[in-house]
Amino acid sequence: MTLYHGSTLSIEHPLAKVGRADLDFGRGFYLTSLRSQAEQWAARVQLLRASTTAWINVYEFDMDAAIKAGFKLLRFDAYDQHWLNFIVASRNGKQPWKDYDIIEGGVANDRVIDTIEDYLNDIITIEQALGQLVYAQPNHQICLLNQQLIDTYLHLIIVFHWILWTEKEVTNERTSTLEKNQSHRPIIISPIGDKPGKSIKSVL
User: Fold this and answer.
1) pTM to 2 decimals?
2) DSSP letters along the chain, please?
3) Domain boundaries, the chain
4) What is the mean pLDDT of residues 110-120?
């Protein structure tokens, strides 16, 4: 499967144990099957880091082979009570992700986080929270939590070097909304190696 990671860096060798432990699915390397979502994240981190360029890293991940090799997968198919309990536990530092190597499901974006916060603060009930989550825009993320898994089954096939915001925009407009500039301008396409069965056009 083809996965994307938006960043201000080109990441050929991702690390599983870098980053915060209280994210949705714990401490790991996060990817998505939705290129548009990776682009939005790249734009966000570019502003946060005051960088003038961003990278869209494109990977091939052999999940079937990883599962056959014994790596443990947890998949959430919907914004249901199981997903909500997991996200809340993770954000509270309880590390419910420790027994898994791959976790796949929806992203707790800004709108979803508002619902979660209202639930945690007893403003709404769990039934009301789940009722609101039904209307959340579909999205997708995969977190890889095991370094051996990453090294064996995740391969970088191409990177796109983008100018998502100009230097002036990064300097003067970091507090404006990300939707203000949607003119993504690719300036470099860098294939990584020669991966059989995967062409550049197939990931554009």
Assistant:
1) 0.79
2) -EEEEEESS--SS--TT-S-SSSTT-SSEEEBS-HHHHHHHHHHHHHHTT-S-EEEEEEEE-HHHHHHTT--EEE--SS-HHHHHHHHHHHTT--TTTT-SEEEE----HHHHHHHHHHHTTSS-HHHHHHHHTTSPP--EEEE--HHHHHHHEEEEEEEEEE-S-HHHHHH-TTS-GGG----EEEEEEE-S--TT--SGGG-
3) 2-193
4) 82
